[in-house]
Design a protein that fits this description.
2 copies of one chain form a homodimer. Helices cover 26% and strands 26% of the residues of chain A. The first copy, chain A, has helices spanning 10-14, 44-48, 236-243, 250-265, 307-320, 358-378, 393-406, 439-447, 472-483, 526-550, 554-564, 577-588; strands spanning 54-58, 79-85, 88-97, 101-102, 105-108, 111-113, 116-118, 123-133, 156-162, 169-170, 174-183, 191-201, 204-219, 229-232, 270-274, 293-296, 302-305, 325-329, 337-342, 347-352, 384-389, 411-416, 428-432, 451-455, 488-491, 524-525. Chain A binds chain B through residues 246-249, 277, 289-293, 297-298, 305, 307-308, 311, 341, 343-348, and chain B through 246-249, 277, 289-293, 297-298, 305, 307-308, 311, 341, 343-348.
Chain lengths: 591, 591
């Protein structure tokens, strides 16, 4: 959805059992209802004190506005920002009202700077939707750990989803934010562009908020050219389940196309593939399955079929444009049990074996040889890595031996702790947040063309991208990636959707929102947009630093390095995140 | 085992925890222990009244001698019988003793008739072993019906297994029958052959029982040439489980070879194959699985692999010599759920569909076309039938349509009730015991070369082959097959072994012994040997009738027909079975 909202056909409204005719069925893709907010909130008396029944103001992208409270803010009728050509800039406006607004719509004008125009089609507008979240562990130190009983956790509705559809109504005595994203065209003429955001409704007069974007004379490359090595794991199985389409059917690819395109637009570099059944022991709501068919023939030989693997990789590479790297999970799964179709029993069987065992060697050694051959035929061998994550040194060492025995040239990647003994074997090594490469190793890896990245998961209370995390923490990650001298960032879940992901981000094993950054129906989130901001910041810093180095501008280089260097774990402060980023960006946009 | 027993190595004895050092481990193939007989039995006082401590006498093959009772019998020191060349004749001797016999062995002399010899190698000798059985339903009308709690059924040890190994001891105050089977060579010179059966033991003097076989000048063909259409379903999966060998491995075929050879020697005509997962919804202890691999490709097409099917059929046909017919189970399984490997999900999936549904048509139609092609390539098409059992008319009609649409020439077979509407479609039609073909239909089927047979299962309280059934009932079946003008007989279970089949024939769904006629370790049973007797009788009657017809000997034909015609359900009497067979055989052996 771009500028204007369509009115929904009456037909859709008829099936909606709950609030305002919204769709409360399972697996909604279009219109849907939110869960009920049961927390104490502003009373009717508080709401009725509004001087005007409908309020419309610019807000802050750092804030998740409460649905049923009157926002504590000074109304702002004007917003301005700066941006590079090719950059996406975000703003948030807020509507709050003590009367129901019928058929609300938001529209934006073209942005004009003299005769230059940034067309309104470059602007995305989304009503922000509310979704159920929970909280960190009771001691506030982590988002990990099982949480089977939701009643034991403080749950609340938070603003996160950027909806793609209009709302039938904005309810009386509620707040409804609007997210605005302007993707400044790369060929925009630098200058000050003015535009207007307008709220309309059937029963209200139009209300408008002007804004201004100063387009600087610097260019951010297209996301595919970003250097930032972004790896958010894709979960195709989750999409098939939620969209209720057959796996790997045309309908499945149709469903994935916009979702994966959105990921490519964030600068994703890696295709997530699974080469065995349940690499993570089925820990997500939908388990990952094997994209490769293995048959153990009656004579003991193995036969492989790569139809699914090829179809998925070709889709991601040639249709979506994510084409730098193929990561294959995994040689050391979280349960050491390996599936195959057994010709004798005509059934799926499992080998239980650990690296070092003969059975492990037979299962993987034979496969890796065949796989290498297949990858070379497809021209993908050099892009492919055999991937392991969060496994111990002993198992890693044994698995690496099996890989090397089968095919010495295979690239290997791993996410986890740093092990001096094997780091040289790893083409990509992704360290847990808070862990650093020894400086000489970092340099050596860079020179060898190896990738050195960082990841966060449920472990970190902050910075994180839980649905209750302050939005600025998502942007902080890009700055930290630069500060820690990492090549990029990994997060284990782009779209490992939970049972009812559009309404409830809670999951029985980790803090809410851990499992996905985007929502079904190709809906982005505040978290995801802010994460992209940080990645853009990384790219802008990189470009500036290269320029300063090229021009020998040491003072600017030092100034920039100094401000970047603050974005390290020891320096992280929940209270200062937003301010740190704001101030750093002032410098970044001053060149 | 033929004439002599080997003494067991000491080593084996060391591992035996129970009686007399016998092996009470699970899955025994060699020596093993019997279950304990907890029924009231003759006391020590009764046993101690024996005039001689060790008794050895000819007994009757109609009797399952009690293990812990003194046999109620007049001692018989001589046994004689008549037989055709090529016929197998059975005798039973009985040992009972009030002192332990150490290392007992049984041996037989060569049988001599003047200068002619039937070598002792033509004689099988087996100690009869005791196995746990139960009883008919409480009202005595059936062997069907669930029996989950063994405690609610009257269980007892019965003599049935013909062991292949010597016993370490015969316990004090116990009875131990010996089964003798003489397979008269087809080239034996007619005449009266004399032989001696001898019991030896470490602590007893040799005891001998003479016997005499009058070999008549008539020849029974080799079993492969018998006309009797015998169909005892084979269960290869059960063998693999019990023998603890990988399915379809060389070890598996090695295990099956003597078991299936024994079946061929009974005149078996049909190879049992399963073309889908669990044709009978896994009702046996081991479920039957699909011998055919089906993959649903991503493009919706089907791919098939016949490796297992071919290997099994080739084994049975070319190694074992059972080569008349291949029955394929089934198009209408007992649960309408059909397995296939789904390329998209990389998992086994099931189609739930009934005959008449599009999904059923897609699953089977495509397969049957491909299967027909494959069978023609193998030269097996004309021997193969698509088989359904105990299904209703409506489903049968719909399934037949699917078969005919795919391949009009496919042979179809069915076991169940008679349906006028579809009988003409059925190459083989096997009717439940007590059901008859209309006379004109029987004649029409005969002329068309179609097979018309009869079956028994758990339904019949008698005649049957439960482990508690009187042995003569097994022989009665062959006579009934002739009396009812059937081409042969079907029983659903040659070797659907239960959990611990050598010790316990009970099963949670049917009366004990319903699931198998032979025992692991290639052990025959009293039931199986008596069943073969009846089949031999059928063949002998057939040959005599053909001769009488050829020679126009109406009076003998009538006499024979008259005695045969008594073997019909209405005439069956538990009390007279043995006498009926004895008297009929006197006639049969009078020509």
């Amino acid at each position: 959805m771009k500028k204007t909202f369509l009115f929904l056909p009456i037909l859709l409204l008829l099936v909606c059992p709950v609030i305002s005719g919204q769709n409360c069925s399972s697996h909604p893709l279009g219109e849907y209802c939110e869960m009920t907010d049961n927390k104490p909130h502003d009373s009717a008396e508080v709401w009725d004190k509004l001087k005007q029944p409908v309020q419309f103001s610019w807000g802050s992208t750092d804030i998740r506005y409460h649905k049923l409270n009157v926002p504590k803010m000074n109304k702002q009728s004007f917003w301005q920002t700066k941006g590079w050509k090719g950059e996406r800039v975000n703003a948030q406006a807020v509507i709050w009202t003590n009367k129901e607004i019928e058929a609300p719509t938001i529209r934006v004008s073209d942005l004009r700077s003299g005769s230059a125009i940034i067309p309104s089609s470059a602007v995305s507008l989304n009503f922000v939707r509310y979704v159920m979240t929970d909280e960190l562990s009771k001691d506030g130190t982590t988002g990990c750990g099982h949480r089977p009983d939701p009643a034991q956790w403080d749950s609340s509705l938070v603003a996160d989803i950027l909806d793609i559809l209009p709302l039938p109504v904005i309810e009386a005595r509620s707040t409804r934010p609007v997210w605005m994203n302007v993707w400044i065209p790369q060929d925009a003429r630098p200058g000050k562009y003015k535009g207007t955001l307008t709220l309309s409704g059937k029963n209200i007069p139009d209300m408008s908020l002007p804004f201004e974007i100063l387009v600087l004379n610097r260019t951010l490359p297209a996301p595919s050219d970003w250097v930032f090595h972004l790896d958010l794991w894709q979960h195709p199985y989750s999409v098939a389940r939620y969209y209720e389409v057959p796996l790997w059917s045309e309908a499945h690819f149709d469903a994935m196309r916009p979702i994966m395109k959105r990921l490519a637009d964030a600068g994703q570099k890696i295709i997530t593939t699974t080469i065995m059944h349940k690499p993570w022991n089925g820990q997500t709501y939908d388990h990952f399955d094997s994209m490769i068919f293995r048959m153990k023939k009656l004579d003991g030989n193995w036969e492989y079929d790569y139809t699914i693997f090829d179809k998925w990789v070709e889709f991601m590479m040639y249709e979506i444009g994510i084409d730098k790297q193929i990561n294959c999970y995994t040689l050391i799964p979280w349960a050491l049990s390996f599936d195959y179709y057994d010709q004798a029993t005509n059934r799926i069987q499992f080998v239980e074996a650990k690296p070092g065992d003969d059975a492990y060697d037979d299962y993987w050694g034979s496969f890796l040889k065949d796989f290498a051959k297949h990858l070379r035929q497809k021209g993908w061998f050099d892009k492919t890595t055999i991937t392991m994550d969060e496994r111990g040194l002993e198992a890693m060492t044994a698995a690496i031996k099996v890989i090397r025995d089968a095919e010495p040239a295979f690239k290997i990647s791993s996410a986890g702790y740093y092990h001096e003994e094997i780091q040289h074997e790893l083409y990509e090594l992704c360290l847990a947040y808070g862990h650093s490469f020894p400086e000489d190793v970092r340099e050596e890896r860079r020179e060898a063309g190896k990738i050195s990245t960082v990841y966060t998961c449920c472990s970190e209370p902050y910075p994180n991208t839980f649905t209750f995390s302050p939005p600025a923490e998502a942007a902080w990650i890009g700055w930290h990636t630069m500060a820690g001298d990492y090549d990029g960032y990994l997060r284990w879940a782009y779209n490992s959707w939970t049972k009812d992901p559009l309404r409830d981000t809670r999951f029985h094993t980790w803090a809410a929102g851990d499992c996905y950054l985007v929502y079904p129906g190709n809906r982005s989130s505040i978290r995801f947009e802010r994460l992209i901001e940080g990645i853009q910041d990384f790219e802008k810093i990189r470009i500036l630093k290269e320029e300063f180095q090229r021009k020998g501008n040491q003072s600017q280089l030092q100034k920039l390095n100094q401000i970047v260097s603050q974005f390290m774990p020891d320096n992280f402060s929940k209270e200062h995140t937003e301010k740190m980023i704001k101030e750093a960006r002032v410098l970044l946009n001053s060149y």
